Amino acid sequence: MAETARRQGGGRPLPPPPRGVNQQPPRPKTEPVDREKTGGHHTKEDYAVRGKEPKDEVQIYTWKDANLRELTDLLKKPLSSAVVLKVKEVSVAARRRDARLSFAFVYPDKNGRFIVRQVGQTMSYPNRKQPDDSKTLADLHFEIGDYLDVAIY
Questions:
Q1: Buried (b) or exposed (e) across 69-83, using 16+ Cβ within 10 A?
Q2: What is the dihedral of CA 98, 99, 103, 104, to 10 degrees?
Q3: Which of 3, 72, 90, 127 is the residue whose CA sits 20 to 30 A from 104?
């Protein structure tokens, strides 16, 4: 009988752990996310103060009938030497073969607080068609004066 109990995990119990010893492994410290390396949309707080919007912006003049594929292709184009370095980095990141671009509109609500609303995703190269490629800014209810926040993953 004692032999059977030992095989089934019986037998002598293990001694209790010493007092004050944490049995759980230590939790890793969370590091702040580096947006330059990780990608991701800006937060609504990034737009909260007029004149202090995110500095890594690209100004694009387009029509409301432009679709997300056209905007993706526009962001991939090589930029002139007069353009700021950050903008060139955006262009290079958008040209990666496996790059995924996520689009969000940023606009104020009725109380003046900003809202970030994701509206679609595209892949960098058109041979990887996405359902959102053909959606136009008008289809997505873009309003003149809204920001278009593009995250490149």
A1: bbbbeebbeeeeeee
A2: 110
A3: 127
Question: How far, in Å, CA of 53 to CA of 57, rounded?
Answer: 9
The vertex-148 CA angle with 147 and 152, nearest 5°, equals 140
Contact 75, 68 (CB under 8 A): no
What is the rounded distance in angstroms from the CA atom of residue 80 to the CA atom of residue 109?
A: 36
Q: Give pairs for 119-123: CB < 8 Å, separation 24+.
A: 120/68, 122/68, 122/69, 122/71, 122/72, 123/72, 123/98, 123/99
pLDDT of residue 22: 57
Tokens 């679609």 belong to residue: 120
Cβ neighbours, 10 Å, residue 59: 5
Q: Which pLDDT tens digit goes with each residue over 138-149?
A: 999 999 888 888
Return the axis-axis angle of helices 85-95 and 68-76, rounded to nearest 10°: 120
